[in-house]
Design a protein that fits this description.
single chain, 521 residues, mainly alpha, two-stranded antiparallel ribbon, 27 helices, 2 strands, 1% strand, globular
Length: 521
């Protein structure tokens, strides 16, 4: 109604004439209606179409900008984003529109007056309703415009500080990551003109993929990584160091997704290539060595993990120094390994060294610092120092919520840990609140079958058992068992722990035969 009212206010049409035009356009081709995601009767499409026709006549540049917005996310559109992508090859009309913020504000203001956009006064940005956004792609961009797509790509890439990769996970990058996700939207990438990335943009594609991974947009990150890798292999060759860097990045991504076998293949390929091209002690080689250590730890191969960590630590101390952040990351990883091996005193020494170094080099609220704070909390929990553990968890939670957001996986891990701590302290209601929050967040961010999600499912099962809610506990255990068998295998320790828990539960329910089956397994 707002769009129709704006049209009538700006035109000489009578209301009767508007209705006539509306009906005429609605019945242009009833056999082949344009399909949008919402509003099955499609009446809004006709309203937008009429207003767009008038906009084209009154302000052609604003009409072109509206068509361009289909290639961006529909939330948080700001001037600097669009200005960042301008190059000498940009269309002349676009350069004129975005030459300064005053001109750009004027054009966006016209679109807001037509109710195609909403103005966000507090942030100085604009947004677009999901349905209007669908229409801009489905109706205004029946044929994908490569010029518009690559301009949007350049806008995102140029807005990323490539010296800032340690901060890619921060909440401040979330709006940009949403625009990056649009770049792998299926309809935009269904032809070779868009899918194939020009050589000059391959480095930018890898940078965008890294941003998406740190923002835990893993499917989008994988799609962009795959495109970057295919381009680099074609242009640079399979053994070029830039290609190997992308291979390494894919390994990191696959590990984040829980695809450990695929991650190992990528790491082994990157390691062999870097050792040949750069040498065994080069920092890029050592970075892959570190990641292989983490992967072996994930797989429960602790001796192999320790070998990788020790090699990486010695190499980084020699090449970068004892206080370099890469060295400190390996120190942190060794702390995790020693904890898993039961060497708690050595683990604490590693964590304290990593914490002191990161606080000095990066600051007390940096995500790397907070990661070590979290691990110290876990260690204190292992040692039975529950009050100290709670202090660490609370510090980590507050810091991660501020830096990364309430739904980031690092935040959710701390929430999960607090659930465990509260259970051990006998605070069962608080524990359940933490578990439910962690479960909902992980299901959304990682998927229902991710190992982190299943870990929380298992803990909820244990909590329900503690509370005497045996039917709910059984549901959680059965879900965790099916998920772990699929993700980790029938003989993985996490799977077997769930089998053991089911045995206990069946015993308490009086199902002794089923309990025996679980225990025997």
């Amino acid at each position: 109604m707002a769009i129709a009212g704006t049209f009538l206010h700006r035109s000489k049409f009578t209301f009767e004439r508007y209705l006539h035009e509306y009906e005429r356009r609605w019945n242009i081709n009833p056999r082949s209606p344009i399909k949008l995601n919402e509003y099955e009767e499609r009446t809004l499409y006709t309203t937008w179409d009429i207003s767009y026709s008038r906009l084209e006549n009154q302000d052609p540049e604003a009409a072109k900008v509206l068509k361009l917005l289909a290639y961006f996310d529909n939330q948080t559109l700001w001037y600097e984003l669009f200005h960042a992508g301008l190059t000498d090859s940009s269309p002349e009309w676009l350069s004129e529109v975005i030459t300064d913020d005053v001109n750009f504000d004027g054009v966006m203001g016209v679109l807001a007056e037509y109710y195609f956009l909403d103005t966000q006064q507090t942030s100085g940005s604009w947004s677009m309703h999901n349905c209007v956004h669908d229409w801009t792609l489905g109706a205004l961009n029946k044929d994908i415009d490569a010029t518009y797509y690559w301009y949007a790509f350049d806008c995102v890439a140029a807005s990323i500080d490539d010296n800032d990769d340690n901060d890619f996970a921060k909440l401040s990058y979330s709006p940009l990551a949403a625009h990056a996700t649009r770049l792998v939207q299926q309809r935009l990438c269904q032809n070779d003109v868009i899918y194939d990335i020009a050589p000059r943009r391959l480095g930018q594609a890898s940078l965008i993929a890294d941003l998406l991974r740190h923002q835990v947009l893993l499917l989008a990150a994988e799609q962009m990584h795959q495109r970057a890798l295919a381009g680099k292999e074609k242009v640079l060759g399979v053994d070029h160091t830039s290609t190997l860097k992308t291979v390494h990045g894919l390994g990191v991504l696959y590990r984040d997704q829980g695809k450990l076998d695929q991650a190992e293949q990528m790491y082994q390929r990157a390691l062999a290539g870097n050792e040949k091209a750069l040498g065994v002690d080069h920092t890029s080689t050592l970075s892959t060595v570190t990641c292989l250590g983490v992967l072996y730890w994930d797989q429960g191969k602790l001796d192999q993990a320790e070998q990788m960590y020790q090699r990486a630590l010695a190499g980084n101390e020699k090449a970068l120094g004892v206080d370099h952040t890469s060295t400190l990351q390996t120190v942190h990883n060794l702390g995790i390994l020693y904890r898993d091996q039961g060497k708690l005193d050595q683990a604490e020494q590693m964590y304290q060294r990593a914490l002191a170094g990161n606080e000095k080099a990066l600051g007390v609220d940096h995500t790397s610092t907070l990661s070590t704070v979290t691990c110290l909390g876990v260690l204190y929990w292992d040692q039975g120092k529950l009050d100290q553990a709670e202090q660490m968890y609370q510090r980590a939670l507050a810091g991660n919520e501020k830096a990364l957001g309430v739904d980031h996986t690092s935040t959710l891990q701390t929430v999960h840990n607090l659930g465990i701590l509260y259970r051990d302290q006998g605070k069962l209601d608080q524990a359940e609140q933490m578990y439910q929050r962690a479960l909902a967040g992980n299901e959304k961010a990682l998927g229902v079958d991710h190992t982190s999600t299943l870990s929380t499912v298992t803990c909820l099962g244990v909590l329900y058992w503690d509370q005497g809610k045996l039917d709910q506990a059984e549901q959680m255990y059965q879900r965790a068992l099916a998920g772990n068998e699929k993700a980790l295998g029938v003989d993985h320790t996490s799977t077997l722990q769930t089998v053991h828990n089911l045995g206990i539960l069946y015993r308490d329910q009086g199902k002794l035969d089923q309990a025996e089956q679980m225990y025997q397994r």
